[in-house]
Amino acid sequence: MRLKLPDSLKMSVPARKVVLLPDAHFFCRAVPVTENATPAEAAAQVELALEALSPFPPAQMYHGHFWRPGAKHACVFAAYRKRFTTEQIESWAEAEAVLPTFASMLGAPIKHLTTLLLWSEKGLTAINWNDVSDAPVSVIARDLPPEPTEADRAALRSAVLLESGGPRTVVEPATAPVYDAMARGDEFIFRCDPLTVEFTREQLDVLDVRDKEELAARRRSRSRDLLLWRVLLGCAAAILLAASLDVALIGGRLWQKGRMMRVELQEPVVAKILMAKNLSTRIDELSTRRMRPFEMISMVADKKPASVTFVSATVTNLYTLDVEAQAATSTDLDAFRSALSSNPGFASVEFKGNRLQNGLTTFRVVVTFRPEAFKAVPQS
Amino acid sequence: MKAFFLSRLFREKLLLLGLILLAAVTWLSSASGRTARFWRDFRATSVVLEGQRELLAQRSQIEAEAKAAVEHLEPAKTFDGVRLQAEVDAIAKRTGVINYSADNVQTERVSQFSMNSMQLQIRNADYATLVKFYLELSKQAPYIGIEQFRLSVANFKHGVSMRVSSVEIAK
Fold it and tell me: A139 with A125: CB under 8 angstroms?
């Protein structure tokens, strides 16, 4: 079910306008088109054919054509420009398309060997098809006399059918073709009860008889507008995304609030567990892996040359001693390094920040002990 | 909507598009900023919750380990904060350490036991006296232990700063 907006909420959109011109102004021919031609090639071939068959150059005519992709013929129609007044032409500026009335029925769903009779106030037009997949073989438009009687109409009908030739199925709608301006969507719909014909924008452009350069400019303008519309759609999508994010954030914040409450509720219990873990580690260290600062100092001091004196010693963890020392003889530093490095009880020996001032070398040595280094040291 | 937009004049289209573009950029950038901040908080909370979950899952194991850590200790030989200070004072006096101070006594307690610690400063002592004090203190292991240690020398006198800790088991 499609929901409809109330009229008061609907945006005011001017109805699309299509101008249907009198058929009698136009002459119409079926011209051959090469096989597998593209729409652009077909248009070029139609223009060449028109030049050949028209007494006027194409620039002095309003012309259009109808061609189904793959068809062997195109139906070209043209009118001398001077048959239209300036006022008429000016009124076309706002129109989406300008075409002869019969052209609106060229895409009609009919069968082979059919004649479609289109009555208007001033005359009758017959569109004759031999093959529905091809263009009509002929279009015959004839005017009624002024103030026509039923007999005039019947006579005109007979004459036109006779001119159309051959035995044909005759389709004769009761009304003249009209453009359905109320129809929504991108397609252009023409109605001629009981027939309904839909044209796409591109198909209608080909039928449009106006100046081709002007139509090209309109097409460019439409492409630009379409681009703007797509950018607008992108922006609308971005706004929708932002709105969705904000809505999701509202839900997310509620969820997050619950999680934060859970964290706060668990915090005291977790703190107790952490403390128990920490204390058990410390007790384990106290009872099984004691810190042995003097043993460490003694093991390092045993290797020190006489000129080296310790300024401070810091135990940074169970197995690391950081000593700040001075050496009166700088060459002793090397000897000290060698002596420490050769001790298998040390995992690493690192000398740092050597500084020489007034013959006194100040340095730091960081010694990391192997756990088994203390096994030889008697328990205190 | 499309028909409405396409039926506008070019300048109206541009104006409409500009306004919507501005709204989209402003809203989206602020919403993405808020989302990024929320996501950071959310992930941080997830990490905390995961850590808590793991700890809670290990609760019985940690408590068992804590129990095991003090199992081999005799409650009667453990020291509370006051007894720790008194014991260190007695050892200092026995070993000839004169210039010393003890402060910053702290107690951390869990259900089965507690850890007491204090900061001990010894100043102007000779090295032999310090070693003697250390050896005496070590005799109280594992009930008393050293957790931090720094020795410094100035004018042939030694100073020590250490954190001494003791275990106390609830009787």
Answer: yes
